[in-house]
Design a protein that fits this description.
The structure is a single chain. This protein is of the alpha/beta class. The chain folds into 2 domains: about 140 residues, Alpha-Beta Plaits, CATH 3.30.70.270; about 250 residues, EAL domain (TIM Barrel, Alpha-Beta Barrel), CATH 3.20.20.450. The structure holds ligand C2E and calcium ion (2 copies). The site of ligand C2E has 21 residues, from strand 9, helix 7, helix 8 and strand 13.
């Protein structure tokens, strides 16, 4: 590939590189064995090479990753070409008696615009390809320089986060109060993690939680939060406050067996009634496909820990979830609360239907992101149970939470 790049460059030509990586290929190897995996790669390589013109060149760079080099044409033509490769790879494939449906993630770069040197070009094509994976796989992404800057930031943040979690430094919990929509009394608090990077300052969990998940750090992160929350809860129980604390658990941590046992052991160690603990899980493909995660959730619930479905309405197959998961609570996502209008509108109707559904299943309903009195009244009138949002209180640290909310409610 290097020699070809050089040759084209010497001739003054420009070219495009398309990096193609099969999605979830490891899964095929793990479930059907390496023999089938190898046969898939051979078949895909043949398909790709059959779809090329004589000027194009195909190279398998690693495992299930291929690169196609082609003379530069207009951006549209190259993207068209990439899409064609992509449907070539995605057509149903029969190997022995298995029929496999594969998808691929693709990244595209141009020389010399995206790098004059072949190593840099390949790297950039890979960065664009990983962006396709990050966006949900099964798509084509063209490289731009911001992606590199972003990747460098993410790599730096991930390393720093690993250090923070291992040393338990620069991390702290904040608590956001939840209030009854019936009589406005304090019912509980959601525990949220905060991280102050030594140089970059506060990093939002919306940025670092997904990074932790990608880097395999979510188990470490969730355990840190669990332990700190248990220590805090024990102190509040000793001081005579009885309030439910809700912690967020990543589906990735739940898929590794043993987490439920650890949580229950923590409750035992710190003498906390299970009824004062709640865990929030988000609907996702990973959860639905995982009997391990389901078993952990069942174990927690059997011990008396409440289970809440977080961000309800934003994930996939919400309805099938409500049927399968042993749930106590649904937390309706903020986006639905934001769409409440004073006069009747489709948003209101959808929200009303969600509330009716949750009620029919005897679930407690928490509305997230309540910011105005109008939203509060609407939700109260519709029979929602609990409100959480800036109207009632932002997430605050332990001391402020005690002063503002706990002492008031006592
Ligand atoms: P989430 O679980 O949906 O948490 C609610 C988020 O909405 C929090 O953002 C909270 O500060 C914010 N919020 C609450 N009320 C309002 C409101 O009225 N208006 C608006 N605009 N926002 C409101 P935060 O703390 O930045 O957390 C973002 C996400 O990061 C969380 O979403 C959760 O998915 C994740 N996360 C945070 N802490 C943890 C943690 O300890 N463990 C895990 N696994 N994930 C966490
Ligand atoms: Ca949550
Ligand atoms: Ca939420």
């Amino acid at each position: 590939m290097n020699a070809s790049c050089r040759k084209i460059k010497q001739q003054g030509g420009s070219f495009a590189l398309i990096s193609l990586d099969l999605d979830n290929f490891r899964h095929i190897n793990d479930t059907l064995g390496h023999k089938i995996g190898d046969a898939v790669l051979v078949a895909i390589a043949r398909r790709l090479s059959d779809s090329l013109t004589p000027q194009d060149m195909l190279v398998r760079v690693a495992g299930d990753q291929f690169v196609v080099m082609m003379p530069s044409a207009s951006a549209n033509e190259i993207i068209q070409h990439a899409r064609q490769l992509f449907s070539t790879a995605a057509a149903p494939l029969q190997i022995e008696h298995y029929v496999l449906l594969l998808t691929a993630s693709i990244g595209v770069v141009w020389s010399p615009q995206n790098g004059a040197e072949s190593r840099l070009l390949l790297q950039n094509a890979e960065i664009a390809m990983y962006r396709s994976k990050y966006r949900g796989r099964n798509q084509v992404t063209c490289f731009d320089d911001n992606m590199r800057t972003e990747l460098e930031r993410q790599t730096g943040l991930t390393q720093a986060l690993r250090l923070a979690l291992e040393s338990k430094r620069d991390l702290r919990l904040v608590f956001q109060p939840q209030f009854s929509l019936v009589d406005r009394h304090l019912t509980g608090a959601e525990v949220l993690l905060r991280w102050r990077h030594p140089q970059l300052g506060d990093i939002s969990p919306a940025e670092f939680v997904p990074l932790a998940e990608q880097a395999g750090l979510s188990g470490l992160l969730d355990r840190f939060v669990m332990e700190q929350a248990a220590i805090q809860q024990a102190a509040w129980v000793r001081a005579g406050f009885s309030l439910k604390l809700s912690i967020n658990l990543s589906v990735l941590s739940l898929r590794v067996t043993g987490l439920a046992k650890e949580i229950l052991a923590l409750l035992g160690k710190y003498d906390i009634p299970a009824q004062l603990m709640e865990v929030e899980v988000t609907e996702s493909v990973d959860l639905e496909g995982s009997s391990e995660a389901m078993a952990e959730i069942l174990q927690l619930r059997a011990a008396g820990v409440s289970i809440a479905l977080d961000d309800f309405g934003t994930g996939h197959s919400s309805l099938s979830y409500m049927q399968q998961l042993p749930l106590d609570i649904v937390k309706i996502d903020q986006s639905f609360i934001r769409s409440i209008q004073p006069t009747e509108c489709p948003g209101n109707a959808i929200l009303r239907a969600i509330i009716a559904l949750a009620k029919a299943l005897h679930l407690e309903i928490i509305a997230e992101g309540v910011e105005t009195e109008e939203q509060h009244s609407w939700l109260a009138a519709e029979g929602c149970d609990i409100a959480q949002g800036y109207l009632h209180g932002k997430p605050v640290d332990r001391l402020e939470f005690e002063q503002r909310y706990l002492r008031q409610s006592a």
